[in-house]
Sequence to fold (1360 residues):
Amino acid sequence: MTDSKYFTTTKKGEIFELKAELNSDKKEKKKEAVKKVIASMTVGKDVSALFPDVVNCMQTDNLELKKLVYLYLMNYAKSQPDMAIMAVNTFVKDCEDPNPLIRALAVRTMGCIRVDKITEYLCEPLRKCLKDEDPYVRKTAAVCVAKLHDINAQLVEDQGFLDTLKDLISDSNPMVVANAVAALSEIAESHPSSNLLDLNPQSINKLLTALNECTEWGQIFILDCLANYTPKDDREAQSICERVTPRLSHANSAVVLSAVKVLMKFMEMLSKDLDYYGTLLKKLAPPLVTLLSAEPELQYVALRNINLIVQKRPEILKHEMKVFFVKYNDPIYVKLEKLDIMIRLASQANIAQVLAELKEYATEVDVDFVRKAVRAIGRCAIKVEQSAERCVSTLLDLIQTKVNYVVQEAIVVIKDIFRKYPNKYESVIATLCENLDSLDEPEARAAMIWIVGEYAERIDNADELLESFLEGFHDESTQVQLQLLTAIVKLFLKKPTETQELVQQVLSLATQDSDNPDLRDRGYIYWRLLSTDPVAAKEVVLAEKPLISEETDLIEPTLLDELICYIGTLASVYHKPPSAFVEGGRGVVHKSLPPRTASSESTESPETAPAGAPPGEQLDVIPTQGDLLGDLLNLDLGPPVSGPPLATSSVQMGAVDLLGSGLDSLIGASNFVSPPAAAVPANLGAPMGSGLSDLFDLTSGVGTLSGSYVAPKAVWLPAMKAKGLEISGTFTRQVGSISMDLQLTNKALQVMTDFAIQFNRNSFGLAPAAPLQVHAPLSPNQTVEISLPLNTVGSVMKMEPLNNLQVAVKNNIDVFYFSTLYPLHILFVEDGKMDRQMFLATWKDIPNENEAQFQIRDCPLNAEAVSSRLQSSNIFTIAKRNVEGQDMLYQSLKLTNGIWVLAELRIQPGNPSFMVLQLSLKCRAPEVSQHVYQAYETILKN
Amino acid sequence: MIHSLFLINSAGDIFLEKHWKSVVSRSVCDYFFEAQERATEAENVPPVISTPHHYLLSVYRHKIFFVAVIQTEVPPLFVIEFLHRVVDTFQDYFGVCSEPVLKDNVVVVYEVLEEMLDNGFPLATESNILKELIKPPTILRTVVNTITGSTNVGDQLPTGQLSVVPWRRTGVKYTNNEAYFDVIEEIDAIIDKSGSTVTAEIQGVIDACVKLTGMPDLTLSFMNPRLLDDVSFHPCVRFKRWESERILSFIPPDGNFRLLSYHVSAQNLVAIPVYVKHNISFRDSSSLGRFEITVGPKQTMGKSIEGVTVSSQMPRGVLSMNLTPSQGTHTFDPVTKMLSWDVGKINPQKLPSLKGTVSLQAGASKPDENPTINLQFKIQQLAISGLKVNRLDMYGEKYKPFKGIKYMTKAGKFQVRT
Fold:
């Protein structure tokens, strides 16, 4: 005989039959009928119509029948409030029963009847039960207060139940304490401001005592409550930790995790040099590992929390990598979490093992998991620099498998690797291009397009590749469209000559034929940039990208600290603060880790100084803030300071607007050829040009604006080598634009026409920004002076020596080739002034082997003169100090391709004729140092 | 706290619901069904699902989803642990936990659930106490009940709940006093292609069956307690004595319980008792592949390996397998592509092997993935970690109990990559 018989229905009305049975005189039949009613209720059938009949059965001595009726009441009282009143009397009577089981049952059931009218009658019995002699009744009553609060909060406060509940925290029975804490915590959640759980050292002590003796569930409530307490100093924190640690060995994983939360939070207050701190760290690892051998659901929650713990204190689990290795029959949600933690734990020490595992995973069946594994390889490469090479070769192996989704995923991560380690692994581009056709996912396509655009100068058929993508432009997803637009613009800036059509095509596709505002806006911005100022366009589009780092997927530290306080809760599973998802945001108090407070006795050791403060030695590089400020004022070139009549950048800025666009712009979007570049003699553009530099210019014999030093023209191409055409010239840099000042002399006997000029690829991408304009034919013995504007968006190829420029000039007679060395300072850009902090950091960051030392002799200048002279060539003095009678200048400059050079210049005052300047240069690309030194020398000696 | 519980079968029908607070509409489970549909297998349904107003936490056991509904921030582990307790209780009460059995005993199920939680707070989760409150159904009791009209609800106050040893009921009496302990170790390992260990760890438990009269106080000591550096105890174990003396001292619950579970981590050297030699190859050109595996004993401390089964999920491209085992029986399910080979006992003189050919779908390319081999085995009278019980003493009672200790090692998740 089983209960399934209660589910059988008869042909006649079921309710009708039950009603008859319930009203039967026979006890046995009555009970059977109630059982049937309950069975129907359990499966969701509506049996509320039987309410009065069931309530009638309540007056019975049979405990089972009583319980069954109670069950029924709880379910249906709400729908029949008037009827429910009928039951009140029995409840009140049962609350006085000599049997504590019945008293507890009555008060418990009464609380579950969510009817306002009943609650009024509940108060008196509840008050009695809260003070009952039997702890079982007290603990049931404690929960009942929480129930009542849920139904009618005001009533609970008015009746003073909250105070009674607070008193129960000091109850002698641990189970009562635990339930009181649980009830108060639940009530407190709806009263964020109220100070219900007002914890003080005494109550903490009570809780800790109860913690050892109450049930596992009670321990969870108490631990969660403890976690909200902020100890007054590190001693108290330590003593609480000591008493909580045994909970780590509990069989209930929820107890373990709550204990971990308390420890992680209070650990924050302990000094790191304390022995106890190390002990605690060691004790935390085993329980966390044990959680991973539990059922998959528990593992999942544990893994989400371990993810947080690993980010906060990686040292706890750094030796436990292996437990996170994936078993092939783990559920997918466990696999993915394990993978994430594996990457977080990856370090140089274990990377070989991790990579071997990841490669293994990449051949599994589950597509999602395989993708994530491939991605993980990329993240390892970014995280552990030493492993990058191995990761790349692993990825290449995977690409060779030709499994479509593996290839696509690999390409996406290789893009990230390129961004982290530029100029290192580009040799693999060819392999990537082979797989171009198999890419069908937007992300992979976008990644590939990015790679083609970014490295357009190394891919011979970059334009063809991009063109092939362009054919189906409108069918692509937005991600791909945006990337394609950017890539083609990059390509154009790098290879302007061959790709004009392509860029026009993509611009018109993006701006005219697209409904997507993002795409349109980006298209217009590029268009405008290209048409007004290609140099600026280049700076914007080809700007040096910040390196990506593994931190991109880390949780932001303040959020992490908050989440650590929520270990073991839903917040920790979602990795979001409760305010972000808890219903209505009620009851959410932001938690934060306690600050470290040492107890008064312990002396603060030097190591405990806050990590944020800069260590003393760092300050030594630049003397004091006061000094520096003075120096900066001297150097400040901003408009408010009416400084010495130096070439001020504010004036120069004005000139940019006057001249820059006129010279460089490619007017008209449909035709990217600039109008005749008015080879404006530069000094025309600056009528207010500062006197001093004008004077200076006179000496060099060329009318240049104030600006960097200009060398006298030298003969580059002698007439005898070029069938009578003699070319001499020099390079200038003024107001942000570089030009090549040429003097063409016709020493032949015939007229020369049809001049054109072209540069070979060179180290810094120098290229003519406009065609060579010689208006009239050049008659014999005539000389013409031309200023050819240059830009630095041309193709790049490293030359030997670095500043070598190969030029081809054509006229109606022939094509002539010559090469010349350009002074590097024409490439020093105007915004080469580094922030002081930045300078310090960069100086330290560049390894010492990149430092180059030079001497500049016979330079009779003092520090001020040196600094102002260098300033006009865009070498900026950031700070100056005097050490043992020597002036030290700290300077920075930036090249057009974004390379920063930092310099320390030591000037020994004394006999001017023997003066020696010591120059130390630091740069990430040490090969430029030599040329920078030469630039220094030329600038300072002329 | 826990609001409601829904029991859902794998067909997606809710066959039981229980609400401890206000009633939550069944429609909340629609979010669960969505997730269920998305997951390829029942095991892959995520355990935490958020809905606009509630959170659904679920465990999947015995082909039933136990879905708990919560509304406020509650520790998810607390909920999941509780659900596990529900499953264990059902199993304890009814022997098996399946949809038909739960339906048969729906009233008891309902009563038990009611006792386990009050307003979402756990009330009585120890099966000792629950059984005092609500008697589990037995054939005899059902018969007696129908004759005498008595019920299966106890009218006792669960006395144990109030004592300092809530896990033990008072007034226990036995004529034969006996205490048995089983040390059971499961070895989880991943072995790579070449036969070296990628990771191996041991999950051990000591399960006890104690039937002793009165209030016995037991101590259990080990020969080599140092092995146990990562342990979880039953609440009855006195933690302080373990910390100071490495001795388990406890007043046991009555009947069956898990005294201790422990974990011997991957950092210690773990002995691997079995090895698998495999040669599985598919060729690109032909539609035939070769398959050969041999199983042999490795570090078994002279004990024999029994109950060996080998299973492996073959790639999708495999059509059929033509294999001959040297012992035991094997099956290959062409639908699920699951190969299983029931080996039995390993005879070290004549190692069991399974050889033959694999035929692939004509024209299909060589499978990308390599099948992983899953191994099951048992070794009696051996705890592979080397753990040994030294002695068991009883205080507090006069009689002499009968004591017994048994060791066993089993394969947990033991996988060999090929």
